[in-house]
Amino acid sequence: MMAALAVGHGLDEATAIRSITLTPAEILGVAKETGSLERGKLGDLLVTDKPLLTSDAKVLHVLSAGTTVWEAK
User: Which of 33, 37, 46, 53 lies at 20 to 30 Å from 66 by C-alpha?
Assistant: First the structure.
């Protein structure tokens, strides 16, 4: 929600997404393993019906380590 609020106040969307993905991984020292979608990294994926940072985006699918862990019914 904070990333969406920041976009609403002028932060570009790419920077906002990075602030909730790769930047925390870098702070925690795990960016080589996670934080962005790259070959060889652990990857979790969230699929939404609209752009992620829109207020009415609905989560459709969540994958973790290549396995579906949640799916909208």
Answer: 53
